[in-house]
Amino acid sequence: MEFNQFLTSYMPDTTVGGKAHFDNLVAQAVHADRLGFKSVSLPEHHLINILLMPSPLQMAVKIATLTQRIEIVTAVAVLPLHDMRIFAGELTQADILCDGRLVLGIGRGAFAYEMARLGTPLETSRDKLNESLEVLQALLAEEEVSWDGQFYQFEPITIMPRPMRPIPMMLAVMDVEGIYHCAKRGFHIQTTVLHATHEVLLERVSSFLRGKEACGDEGRDLTLSLQRIAYCARDEADAQEKITMAYEYYKRFDNVFTGPGIVSHGAIEPLPREQTIEELGQNLLICPPNEMVDRLGLYDEAGIDEVILSNGIGQSQDDMLENMDRFATEVMPHFAESDAQAVA
């Protein structure tokens, strides 16, 4: 099982400013490369101070110039917000400048607040995602592409420059049957369990494996990634402190994910939560290294290929980097050993 460092891009104090904020994220990506993480993931969100990254492709190119081997994943690029005739060229250029280390993660959008204000409400974003993906794939694979659909109508065009390789694509999917159908079509899959049970996770793994098998030889290298809030704490006291920070994070996340979307000057208003801090702590991977190994072991046994670690919950940059150090030295080696045994 491999590990991906997700650049959560949470800025609870907006006075920090974009320069310091993005410098910290770049430093985390460089650190992940040095520590041996397989990949680093970049969100796309606009107008808010959670998961803040208006241009993940720009960030990907910046990270590629400062790293040696790490894969750079958009998790996820919100296709309905982009014009595919422009995005296809931007993606191709970014992949070239990233020396072929880019993976395009794709989604329909998650927050009604930003999607509505950017002209693509969630009510229509699924249909627009489906057509946008078809247009994007055609533009990347073919020349002189024309289109006559619901959202796109255009005369024959050829994006330039042409892609130097087929760019790997990953879809963010929660629905069990959706996972099967997307894997069957040859897409890598990213999912998350949120508050779901372990049995639900096993259902998603099973659905992915069925889709991967149905894809045939072209699907043999497909992977299933699981995103989790995870922080490798120094000790129990540190874990409890970070769970409290995560609770404050979710007061804002819930506001724009399932709540009313109350935002002022780009800052999301923290709203009261029905779930207690103790209940939240049970659902998150915020714990010392030994417990982290045991809890991640369940995912390894279930058949997860990669865990995407989202651990930007408002802590200092020093705490962030130290957490990454602990994870790389005290947790990751256990799963490198299991991978070696599986190969043997």
Helix content: 40-55%
Total domain modules: 1
| Spatial order of strands in the largest sheet | 1-2-3-4-7-8-9-13
Instruction: List the uncertain runs.
Output: none
Euclidean distance between termini CA atoms: 15 Å
Q: What is the H-and-E element order?
A: EHEHEHEHHEEEHEHEHEEHEHEH
The count of strands amounts to 13
Number of helices: 11
Give the overall shape, derived from the CA principal axes.
Answer: globular
Question: What would the CATH topology be?
Answer: TIM Barrel
Name of the CATH homologous superfamily: Luciferase-like domain
CATH architecture: Alpha-Beta Barrel
Structural class: alpha/beta
Largest sheet: 8 strands, parallel, barrel
Mean pLDDT: 96
Percentage of β-strand residues: 15-25%
Task: Write up this protein.
This protein is α/β, with parallel strands linked by helices and 344 residues long. It has a single domain (2-240, 287-343), classed as Luciferase-like domain (TIM Barrel, Alpha-Beta Barrel). 48% of the residues lie in helices and 18% in strands. The chain has eleven helices and 13 strands. An eight-stranded parallel β-barrel has the order 1-2-3-4-7-8-9-13, surrounded by seven helices. A two-stranded antiparallel ribbon has the order 5-6. Helix 3 (84-97) packs across helix 5 (122-141). The model has no long low-confidence stretch (mean pLDDT 96).
